[in-house]
Amino acid sequence: MSVAQAFSGAAITVLFATGAIVGATLAPEPGWATAPISIFVVGMALSTVPVGVTSRRWGRRPTLLLGTTLGVLSGALASSAILAASFRLFLLACFLNGFHAAVSLTYRFAATDGATDEFRPKAISYVLVAGVASAILGPQAVQHSFDLGPAPYVASYLAQGALALLALVAVAFFRAPLAPAASGAPPTPASALLRRPPYLLAVFCGLVAYTAMNMVMTAAPLAMTLCGHSNADANLGIQWHVLGMYAPSFVSGAMVSRFGARRMILAGLALLGSAIVVNLGGDELWRFWLGLAALGVGWNFAFVGATTLVVESLAPEERTRGQSLNDFIIFGAMAAGSLLSGGLLASGGWSTVNMVVAPALLAAFAALFSKAARSQQRRDGAAP
């Protein structure tokens, strides 16, 4: 699963690095430049529930094989779309890649199937740190292929399909026991989960962190080229960003255990805010690179902390439904945010994209501090 994560993550990074740039050349209007990444996220959101259902019904392996195969197909379709100058076909390719991405998100869970309680955290970490390899492989694949084909980026998406194919080979060797049968107890309704304050806080913080990161990251490569920086500079910026997203996984789990999930979320939100400040300071290349790196690390801290809060707020029998609901809400918001970022970039520029996410970060800060204040009041009231 770690090998599969490395190659699938690299294939997805190809889209992150080039989707808005290709979209700008194929879209009927500049405001639709980031629509490919938005459709990709829509594909992720719409796939979360089917992926869970098919994994429970038929086992993980058939679902993993199907999703990774769609990753291969999406690369071929994207290359064909660029050659045909078809924006709609390119969007279809991105949608299929979203299903591939939704499946790749379950690699870390698949690695725990049949594992002992002691080994499960290590298994998850082994899969997550494979994102470091993705951060190198994906941008380098773009760097060495974007001008090789009959049109820019045709070969890059063929490379994306090849990376997904390597992930498919790894998935083909995966074996795990079937998930245990569900008990006869009725599941907790989604509305009841959303009325649970700890769960709602966790979902909100994860939503803000993921959406803010995605909006800025989606617009960054195109913004860099509009500011006169090269495609190679944009690719390297995305590489630093993805490294920032996954390299902290070596230590972020231990940091949650030491400092607590809420403090980790606060640290992540602070880093996301610092990235916005750096980005608003100018359009120098170093600002793009530093801002993207801080954006990645901030996302990692906030994501790990919010995920921990989600798990802590759910009973064991609620986790499948609660985690799927969490992913659906987050990816839906991400889709809207990435589409909005294209229009903001076209109408207001790079600074507008960054300023729009600032109020959401402040709202998440306020929610966390409000929760901490209420908890302290309860402790003070219980004290003799």
From TrEMBL:
Q: Does the keyword Signal apply?
A: no
> Which chain regions cross the lipid bilayer?
7-27, 33-52, 64-83, 89-111, 123-142, 154-178, 199-226, 238-257, 264-282, 288-315, 327-346, 352-369
Q: Which Gene3D superfamilies does the UniProt entry name for this protein?
A: MFS general substrate transporter like domains
Where is the signal peptide, in residue numbers? none
Domain Major facilitator superfamily (MFS) profile, by residue range, is 198-384
PROSITE patterns in the record, alphabetically?
MFS
* Keywords, comma-separated and alphabetical: Membrane, Transmembrane, Transmembrane helix
User: Molecular function (GO) terms listed?
Assistant: transmembrane transporter activity
Which Pfam families does the UniProt entry name for this protein? MFS_1
Give the protein name, as stated in the record.
Membrane protein
The uppermost taxa in this organism's lineage are: Bacteria, Pseudomonadati, Pseudomonadota, Alphaproteobacteria, Hyphomicrobiales
